[in-house]
Design a protein that fits this description.
heterodimer, A: alpha+beta, Glutaredoxin, 2 domains, 4-stranded mixed sheet, 7 helices, B: Rossmann fold, Ubiquitin-like (UB roll)
Chain lengths: 162, 613
Amino acid sequence: MKSQTLPFTGTPEQAAELQKVIAELKDQPGALMPIMQKAQGIYGYLPIEVQKMIADGTGIPIEKIYGVSTFYAQFNLQPKGKYRISVCLGTACYVKGGDKIWDALRKKLGIGEGECTSDRKFSLDSCRCIGACGMAPVMMINDDVYGRLTVDQLDGILAKYN
Amino acid sequence: MKTLEELLKLKAEAQAAMAQKTRVLVCCGGCTSSGSLKVTAAFEKEIAAAGLADKVQVVKTGCMGLCSQGPIVVIQPGNIFYSHIDELKVGKIVNEHLMGGKPVKEFLYPETVADPDKILAMAETNFYKKQLCLALRNCGHISPLHIEEYIARDGYEALWRCLNEKKPEEIVQTMIDSGLRGRGGAGFPTGKKWLLAAQQKETPKYVICNADEGDPGAFMDRSVLEGDPHVILEAMTIAGYATGSHHGYIYVRAEYPIAVQRLEIAIDQAHKLGVLGKNIFETGFDFDIELRLGAGAFVCGEGSALMTSIEGNRGEPRQKPPRSAEKGLFQKPSLLNNVETYANIPQIILKGADWFKAIGTEGSTGTKVFAVGGKINNTGLVEVPMGTTLREVVYDICGGIPGGGKFKAAQTGGPSGGCIPADHLDVKMDFDSLKKIGSMMGSGGLIVMDEHTCMVDIAKFFLEFTVDESCGKCVPCRIGTRRMLDILNKITMGQATMEDLDKLEELCSHIQQNSLCGLGQSAPNPVVSTLKYFRDEYIAHIVDKRCPAGVCKKLVRYTIDKTKCKGCTMCARNCPAVAISGSIRQPHEIDQVKCLKCGACMSNCKFGAISKG
């Protein structure tokens, strides 16, 4: 696990929103994951500062929260770019050349898995099957899905987000 | 709502409303990724502009199955089947078909207009005519956002009959008699599970739906959740009544936001109609359902890990026994079934166990949905009676391999499954037959591979997946799968010896026997089955240092056929490593030491003189 590279920039408004979520959910059985999911919705990721706030608000030890946040792939300890690229490397996409799309994007953006470009514009992740196997290989940029991809199309697609 | 008459009245009204209008059904399942939302918007706009809004209804449906032809649009009546529709084609369809009554032949799915004298309905095409949809029966036919449309197709009648006409024991007996087996992977008899949960004295009990569909390549659960969410709510409520539970959880993977959204809407509608929540159908029975989102961990598809995750922990599995039916979620008796399993239940209640048992084979009753992908013409969802052969699915329904390629193998059951070679194309696809040849049904992913697929590379791919997804709790899975991957890496790099192969086999059996949960126990399956059927490919990598499919980069050799080479110099000019030499109009040669194996020479040769292998 990489350490946090970019400084935490949370606002008091975000903290207040998180406190509200904690107050609302903390007495439900098994509330930790829903709270963490909402917290990530507020901040975009779960830096250690946010995990501490959850620990203070719920009384759940920080060790456990850190354990949960590092177990699940969808909890991000690193910030994400304005445009989040995720490339499907599920079976169907792999068979259709998803790995070539992945390699080409890493080269083009100069970042690796889970990283964010220094201008915080793009972040890159590989993902498990997103269930669009009929259109393999597939990638997503935020909520837009691009299917039947070839490496040649990538520059054109990325340019749309500049 | 209390009486059956009230429900049937609602049903008749909904059916009448649906029959009254021409319905434009737009697939908004997987087709969303091909742009079907834009198509829907275009239809709504053009229909309003044409003044047809009170005669024509645009319906966003769940997945229609034939994903490779998306976006798909079907117009009722007639079930006229349009494929590859984009917003530019919509105007013409509205003008000619909806206004003029003449389907636009050039946009129709080609097979439906092969005979110039008639237009085939969607269900008459090769892809659909051999299918039998039980779990997917409503997908693509109704709007998942309207509870009335679900009721129009017998929705909530099974629940009414259970609560008013049947004792819990009778329902459990029906499930046992039906022979239904869990569709999530292991094929455990559903009735037996229900019985065990019903017998527990401790309360509260929980009913859980496993919607953490994690097998890469499988998307049938997503289609049911997105296309027919109410069937899950109805079936879970029936399960609650049958086992004495009042609280349900649906654990959905967070990668399926549309499914989550449609389930939330469905739960809300069901509450309002009084078919979920307190005092259902005014019978005094309470049952409610809560959604819980996964967070991207494959192992959470395993029952005990899923429950640990709902409790708010790292999703690690635990030792069994005790079974979840005895001590499951929050240490209380819990009943866990998969989405596709639940989707069969209301119809089994309405039509009876004997009806269901008559479909499929003796040991595997009913149907199975397969998510067919990979090197195949018709990718998408296929639901067929259990026991249908692989050949029928691959060739008759899915139209074979693109470009007339040769079928090499199919991988079933995802990372826990195995491959089926061409010799076994006639294997019956049911739980026991697949197990017998060393594969497994799994959740029903079916990836087709042709001769350009390297089986060692595929085994390595699945191992990478399990190494990545191993939760780390038990040693055989955490360390063993990694050691297996190391050996596979060596093999694909051409650095392995035959002793490594023995070690690999030893590791396989050790991990299968000693892992804590199903993920670890089945992790070696892709290696075991490729070793069984494609051992010669492993040996070619190890002994001959050759990858027969030309996939493993380190082992690929590009060579120029001197008799075909015209000496045009195209290859040499495109080689980034300057590895090709030869003078003009003379046969060229590749320096294997300098060659980067990028393949640029081969794609630039106009004479087909360069081959790899």
